[in-house]
Amino acid sequence: MKEENEINNQPETVAASAERRSFWKSFKGDKVIWRIVIALSIVSLLAIYSSTGAMAYLKGQTTFGYLIKQLIFVLASMFVVYVAHNISIIWYRRLAKLIFFTSIILLLLTFVVGVTLNEGSRWLRIPVIGLTFQPADIAKIGLILYIAKVFEEGGIDSFKQFFWRILTPIAVACVLILWGSTSAAILLGFSVFILLFVAGVRNSYLWKTLGIACAAIAVIVTLGYTTPYFPRIETAVNRVVTYTKGDDNTEKDKAKVFQSEQSSIAIATGGIIGKGPGNSTQRHVLPHPYSDFVYAIIIEEYGLVGGFIVLFLYLILLYRAVVIARSCTKIFPALTVLGLMMLTVFQAMINMCVAVGIFPVTGQTLPFISLGGSSLVTMGFAMGIILSISRATEERDMSKVAMKAVVEENQE
According to the model, what pLDDT value does residue 359 have? Predict the structure, then answer.
């Protein structure tokens, strides 16, 4: 009887296994990246449901409402990932410059019809449906695609060509983003500089780039203090100065580091394994616990173990990007994968460093976890491009294996 039951259950086991395989076949590309993005999305739902209590109370809403809202954003992001990863890398190569120049136009539009949210970040509101998005997020992706496309085209034989074809577009994008968010511009500039190094740009060009960047920063800081231009510069400098003073801050300045202090309390009270899901106490006093400081809430509820797991997931993403880039045979996909993943992971590192007190407050959200719609969708688009490239390399390798098998069969 036992053997008969085992025989009867065997087809179900085989069928279930086949069903799982067919399910994952529709998700092409690097399966590790797929699983990590899904895992981070689940963490996002847990963290947002727990951290939006105070905001829900102030606005007369419920945390369940914010959970549903975030769930819709997560599903929209996953849909974008799925659609983008099915688009051939050929189209991203063809549309690279168009995406970049379109993002520049959108950034310029923020000066005319933009709305100000989150203490200075410039957004555009989509007519009729009323949703808002940050053109800066699109510009980051567009700039990476543009740089990869230019390097693939070649023809950069002098610093003059490098200056006009590479540095000038980078400067334009960073300056326009700087108007609304200093930290976002610095993040983009740093990521792009690392990408230039990885691309094999001459050391002399990189040193000249650093010199130009330092001179430009000095000019922008001066303009930020002496003119109405670059209004976020003074705020950013004050945050850095306040952070470096530490305990020497005046009572007035200590109010500016309230966020950092409350974040530190959340992390310190979380311990090794945390207080448990939904048991955070600092979420009621910590400003923006659902976006800028969501990592502190994760550590408070899930402990250092939970915080380390989230950190480890982002590091694995970066590692998988390196693996994919090394498997690419052309420079455009390789630079695109590395550039987009560095933007994502570096932003995550900045958010975590702010939460644990290593960096001053920057306002950068935690990718795939923090509350928000446009950020999740644009991050999903970036991951979709990476997975599209991964899919292309896998199909190329499978084609080579199939051809080799045919050749060996014919030889026999």
Answer: 86
